[in-house]
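Moderator note: this is an archived Q&A kept for reference. The question asked for a predicted structure of one protein chain; the sequence and the answer are reproduced below.
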Amino acid sequence: MSKEVTAEFINQNTVERAYRLAQQMQHNANRGSYSERLEAEEFAFRGMRAVRSKDHRTMIVLEQATEVLHKISNEQFGQYRLRSDIPESHRVEPTEVQMWREAYRMADQGTPLENFKWVYGCAVKLAYGF
């Protein structure tokens, strides 16, 4: 029996854990042993297959994880970004938030990008368990 994807399951801890795993997989794909490279590529391909087929759970996870990252960003920067004396470069969302948002947008449009395969792999891990 599979887990239900809920807002309680997709939280700061689970998203950060999945993102760390994706970073490790990306590193292994480039610098790991042969078996590590194979495992990392399978991680990424699994994510790409899921978003190409518009797997319902994966798409929900992408959306919820993006919201979690946006919330974390707002908590960390708080009122700082809203001040008028802050330069525009300090008002920009962190790269991770932008990356997840764009990955979700592209997957939702039906045109997932290979550049986001690690994010998509994260979403599959979150959707179907570690």
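Archived answer notes: The chain has one domain: 12-128.
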